[in-house]
Amino acid sequence: MHRSLLLFVFGIFLLLSASAQDMAGKANRFIQLLTKEQQAQTLYPFDTGERYHFSYVPRDDRKGISVNELSDVQRKALFALLTTTLSGETVKKVNDIMQLDLVLKELEHRQDNDHYRDPGKYFVTIFGVPSAHTIWGWRFEGHHVAFNFSADKNELVAGTPGFLGANPAIVLEGPLKDKQVLKAETEQAFDLLRSLSPEELQKTLIAASAPAEIITGASRQAMIAHPAGIRYSELSPAHQQQLLALISLYVHRFTKLFADNMLKDIQKAGMDSLWFTWAGSTEHALGKPCYYRIQGPTLIIEYDNTQNNANHIHTVVRDLKNDFGGDMLLEHYKAAHR
Question: Signal sequence span per UniProt (predicted)?
Answer without folding.
Answer: 1-20
